[in-house]
Amino acid sequence: MQKAQITEIKIKNTVEGENGSLEVRIHARTGEPAFLCAQLLTADGREADRIFPVAVEAQMDFCMQAQPVQLWDAERVRLYDLVLELRDEKMQLLGSTVKKIAFRRWDAPDILNGKKIERRVKLAGKWERFGVKEIRNQLSQLKNAHYNTLRINRADASEAWRELCLEYGIYLEETGPLSPEENAHAGQEWLCGANPDFELNVTQQGVLIENHCVFANASEYELHYALLHEGKTVYQGNMEADVPPGSGRYVEIAYPAPLEAGEYCYRAALRLKRDTAWAKKGTELAAGETAVSNIYVQPGRERIQ
């Protein structure tokens, strides 16, 4: 007798208030007795919901909940994992599949989760011919260049494009065939607005952080600060800065006073706290610095180590 196998997965998710709902339909090839297990996990691995094992049938329907739901946007890539497992009668694993789930609410083309977003668009051109590896490479370049939207011909938007754009924090615009003018500009900047978008103005006592994001708080990143003497780091540290989206705040930093004559630089940067699909932990998203010349030596004090 053949082994049971999942042949098709259809997923519909909705958001209502602070709750996310998932409707799942699975088509399977039946065979030896087997059971379907499902878990819905948050991005940090916490269980949001699960279903008890159910006997595998040709078609299976079930619902799952995320309460309260973590909404996805390009600034905060909050993806859930829907883990589907097939197990035998002794609950030994036969096979598994993981689907990325993004809970979000589009109220209008530019209104996401109740807030207006600004798009910075790249036209896909002939990227639809790329494999998964090439798609990942292109999306990494887009994200690191602060583009937040990819416009692609609907006929060319494969499931791989849709899933990977979610993983990389890219809004995917599926349109009709690109016009001759759009094709001529494929791959070039179309509209303005970087994402995530911070501006740092550094002084000798701290840093003014201007948060131009729509969704992300600066606290979601690590604020790294350093004092450099003639290009070499002599003091550094990390902290968290609470600066809500659409606001600015001056954050005091206890930089030590320069003790020797020479050129000094006060620097601050917002960095990723963890690895992402497009960049490693510690990658700078925004930075600022100010240079000063110290012509005096402070006597009787120890040097900065």
How are the SSEs ordered, and which strands pair?
Blueprint: E1 5-16, E2 19-29, E3 35-41, E4 47-55, E5 59-66, E6 80-87, E7 93-101, E8 106-108, E9 111-112, E10 115-116, E11 121-123, H1 132-144, E12 149-153, H2 159-168, E13 171-175, H3 180-184, E14 198-202, E15 206-211, E16 222-229, E17 232-239, E18 247-252, E19 262-271, E20 284-294
Parallel strand pairs: 11-12, 12-13
Antiparallel strand pairs: 1-2, 2-5, 3-4, 3-6, 6-7, 8-9, 9-10, 14-15, 15-18, 16-17, 16-19, 19-20
Helix pairs in contact: 1-2
Description:
By secondary structure, the protein is mostly beta strands. The protein folds into 3 domains: 5-105, Immunoglobulin-like (Sandwich); 118-184, no CATH class; 198-294, Immunoglobulins (Immunoglobulin-like, Sandwich). Helix content is 9%, strand content 45%. It has helices at residues 132-144, 159-168, 180-184; strands at residues 5-16, 19-29, 35-41, 47-55, 59-66, 80-87, 93-101, 106-108, 111-112, 115-116, 121-123, 149-153, 171-175, 198-202, 206-211, 222-229, 232-239, 247-252, 262-271, 284-294. The strands form 6 sheets. A 4-stranded antiparallel β-sheet has the order 4-3-6-7. A 4-stranded antiparallel β-sheet has the order 17-16-19-20, with no helix packed on it. Strands 1-2-5 form a 3-stranded antiparallel β-sheet, with no helix packed on it. A hairpin with a 2-residue loop joins strand 8 (106-108) and strand 9 (111-112). The longest helix is centred in the middle third of the chain and has 13 residues, at 132-144. 25% of the residues are buried.
